[in-house]
């Protein structure tokens, strides 16, 4: 099954304290969101992926903010089951294609999307969604690129997610609102689970 069809929202999680990785994942899964993107924006990100992969097998954990071929190898070795990049270069997409796991390469323009379609890739991350044109932009892309589907990420909130999910070329959205910094700092896993449940109910 496509990554875009597993849940309406993919939580995009920045983990600063590796000890929170497993409780975050368990809360998100309990709320109905089993697909979790851990961004490689912190020094503990890869260890967080490894812990989630090892201790929360019901979660499908992936690595986000993939920018280099080294990121790909290290993330897959840590246990990442999918990869997400903010943008795409030729060397990066070739390495992701050889990784053995599903991936969502980033695109923000028609030309970038068309270049990926030429390679047979028709499921993309649209980033930064709000800054790059949001719902109107994606609606416009559906005409010339009817066979391409997107996971928009960047600036999307619970109140705007339904507008994206209503588009025929959007399979799911990525969201950071599910793991607010104050909830993580306070170890408020019940709040994370409730935010996940609300997001899971969007479809």
TrEMBL record:
Catalysis performed (reactions): 2-dehydro-3-deoxy-6-phospho-D-gluconate = D-glyceraldehyde 3-phosphate + pyruvate
Gene3D superfamilies per record: Aldolase class I
Keywords associated with the record: Carbohydrate metabolism, Lyase, Schiff base
Entries under Pfam families matching the protein: Aldolase
Organism: Nonomuraea turkmeniaca
GO molecular function: 2-dehydro-3-deoxy-phosphogluconate aldolase activity
Quaternary data: Homotrimer.
Matches recorded under NCBIfam families: eda, PRK05718.1
Recorded metabolic or biological pathway in which this protein acts: Carbohydrate acid metabolism; 2-dehydro-3-deoxy-D-gluconate degradation; D-glyceraldehyde 3-phosphate and pyruvate from 2-dehydro-3-deoxy-D-gluconate: step 2/2
Name under which the protein is recorded: 2-dehydro-3-deoxy-phosphogluconate aldolase
Top-rank taxon, per record: Bacteria
EC primary class: lyase
Name of the coding gene: eda
Organism placement in taxonomy: Bacteria, Bacillati, Actinomycetota, Actinomycetes, Streptosporangiales
Documented EC number(s): 4.1.2.14
Matching CDD domains: KDPG_aldolase (cd00452)
Family of the protein in this entry: Belongs to the KHG/KDPG aldolase family.
């Amino acid at each position: 099954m496509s990554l875009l069809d597993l849940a309406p929202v993919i939580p995009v999680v920045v983990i600063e304290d590796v000890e929170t990785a497993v409780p975050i994942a368990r809360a998100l899964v309990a709320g109905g969101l089993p697909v979790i993107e851990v961004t490689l924006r912190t020094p503990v990100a890869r260890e967080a992926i490894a812990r989630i992969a090892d201790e929360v097998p019901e979660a499908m954990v992936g690595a986000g903010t993939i920018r280099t071929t080294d990121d790909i190898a290290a993330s897959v070795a840590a246990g990442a089951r999918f990869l997400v990049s903010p943008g795409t270069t030729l060397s990066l997409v070739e390495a992701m294609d050889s990784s053995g796991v599903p991936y969502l390469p980033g695109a923000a323009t028609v030309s970038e999307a068309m270049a990926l379609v030429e390679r047979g890739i028709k499921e993309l991350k649209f980033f930064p969604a709000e800054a790059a044109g949001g719902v109107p932009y994606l609606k416009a892309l559906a005409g010339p690129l009817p066979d391409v589907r997107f996971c928009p990420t960047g600036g999307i909130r619970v109140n705007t997610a339904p507008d994206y999910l209503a588009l025929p070329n959007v399979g799911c959205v990525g969201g950071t609102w599910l793991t607010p910094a104050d909830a993580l700092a306070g170890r408020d896993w019940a709040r994370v689970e409730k935010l996940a449940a609300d997001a899971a109910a969007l479809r």
